[in-house]
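input
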Amino acid sequence: MSINRISLYHLETLIWIARLGSFGAAAERLNATQPTISARVAELEQRLGTTLFQKNGRAMTLTPAGRELVRDYTPLWEQLQDVLLRSSGFGQIRGTVRIGAGEIAAVTCLPSFIADLKGYWPELNFEVDIELTAQLIQGLQNGQSDLAFAAGSVAHPGLRSMPIGAAELVWVASPSVASRLVDGSALHAIPLWSLREHSPLNQVVRSTIARIGGSARQLNLCNNVRMMIDIVTAGDGFALVPQSMVASQLQYGTLMRIFPQERPDPIMFHVISRVTEADPVILEVLRCAKDIRLEPHETLPPRVLTP
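output
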């Protein structure tokens, strides 16, 4: 056994393969190629004189010796990471943090959050993917992302969610469409736009329309809030959207608030991470995320069309 020739990167590679479940995911996490990851594992096995992985169908699984090494080394690796970061006062954090985010969170809180973190740690890089909630959860589970910003909490034994605030909702339409909706009689003839069925926004839309007008015959679905806002601003229908995303349109009158008597409950947003997350960099970013608050932009009072 050539223990003196074992480097920290060999053991770090082993930890990430075990944590993320595949050579490919570990390669992505470590910004390496899959052949590089395979070569590191082969070197580690050669220098330890034991087999750490065995082929199981198309997957590679840990052998008993591999599981024992991961179990014994993981706390030492986490402690070393923590000691090194704390010795620099967390001033030398570097690497890449992969963030998945829903569209609303991405345009409300994420830009300032990332800018603040870059101010603290200039060498820390970010990869941000905008996805639907189902894809965000899947990304966390398969190791493609480290954190997710999503609507609603997540009831999953392997994930932990932390509330960061709520997005206020408002019904809007262009001035021409708003004038036709004053008494509600034209509700069934005007296109209604909403996010798709799995979205919490869609549920609020359907319950509100049922309460105030019975039904909307022309229900149109879109998976992008920005696109939906652009369509409604252009004069095609009405929609329920986050107030912070239409602040300027309401201020300048290109959109008008409709159904002012309706006060939909805001949509709660959470930061989601893995329960088993132990990377000190990710944990420090999570600690900073506790201070995030979703707040609407300061604007002039919006124009409201009332009967």
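quick obs: Residues 37 and 164 are 37 Å apart (CA to CA).
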